[in-house]
Each structure stands twice: as C-alpha cells, then as structure tokens.
Amino acid sequence: MNQKILLFIFFVMISKVFLAQRDRVENLPSFDKRKIHYGFYLGLNQNDFKLNYKNSVIAEPDISIEPAVGFNVGLIAELRLHKNLSLRFEPGLMSNTKVISFNHLDISNPAQSIREVSSTFLHAPLVFKFSTDRYKNMRPYLLGGISYDYNFSSNEDNQDDNSAGQFRMKTHNFMYELGVGVDIYLYFFKFSPSIRGVFAINNETKYDDDPNSQWTAPINFMGTRGVFLNFAFE
Questions:
Q1: What are the structural domains of the chain?
Q2: What's the confidence (pLDDT) of residue 187?
C-alpha cells in the first residue's frame, strides 16, 4: 500500500458519504456549540525521508528509502475558538518501518549497505482546524499546525554507530502538518476521516563518530516526509 492508495481510499469514502446526504435527518444538532470536547483516533501512515546530500562529498552518494505502512492511535482535545475555527491537541503513538539502502556501498553485503529503521514515536500535534458551515450531516475542514515527535527507537545515545551496524537518529524532532477532512455527524457521535501530510522541520540524522563516515557524511538533511490517514471518533 502506497501514498496514492491512501489518497484513493480517502476520496472514495468521502464521495460516497456526500451522495448519501440527501433527505437525511440532522444528527447531533448542538454538537458544535460545545466549548471543549474530546475523542480518539485510529489510522494508518506511510513515512519516508526527504534527503539532501552535501555538495562537498567527493564520492557520489546513492541512498534510497523503502517505506512501509504503519499505524497511529491517539486522543483528541478540541477547543472551539470560533464557529469555524478550533484548536486541536492530538497526542498519540505512531509506528512505522523504513529500509534505507546505501547503494554506493557494497550491495552484495547487506550488513554494509542495508539499515532497517523501525520506529515508535510519541506524536503530539497542535493544529488549527478551519471548518466550513455545516451542510446537513457533513462539514468539510482544513488542518494546519506543528507537531513534536519523541522517537523511542532513535538510538541517539548508543555508543555504537553504523561502523557497528547501528543506524542512529535524533530523539527530539519537530514537524509541520497540512491536511483536509470532513466531519460526519452520526446518531450517537461524530466520525471524522482526514488525510494529512507531515514534513520534518529539523534534520533527524545522528551523524557517525567518524566525520568521513560512508553512511552519514554524505547526508546534509534527512527528515520525515509522510502521509497520515486518520479516523477520528468524537
């Protein structure tokens, strides 16, 4: 499953919900009058890395990333600031796996050229939600904000580095997020599917002790770039 499939699933789901809104009784008519409300979310993610190389490196680097689908789960606290604007805090856990191939090294020796990065994050976004006016039992919205990620699997403090087969990353990272979604008002609760892009602000690379390391010396910037498909229940 890749990012295009996640986008396809989201837009097919939304189009079917729009078609089903004709002649529906309005559910939860006073829901949006609450100042604060809570919920939780489940979802999928697919993350890879954005890579920039250093121009000063003599040997030509060739690094590729193979992402896999991971999972998200978390809580939601929403503060209504205006009838069309709210502030959301969505702390949760995110897991995913990426395989990094250093193709400029000896590809016949996976211990040299392959690093599997399995990560579990505390993902804590603080985002603004810009909503349209409600149409029957639907309300589309846009999301934008920043997030903090604590990488439990970073190995940043590990004394071993790539020369001992250990790929390290920074523990504390910051992202910005942009997304789109729709609130669907059901009989007992509000269901909100959304899709968003997540982009690293800081360089997540933990450089090897050797300044000429064939693994990390060529990297100028390596930061998370991903797509989240979330299903919120509020």
A1: 3-15+36-233 (2.40.160.20)
A2: 86
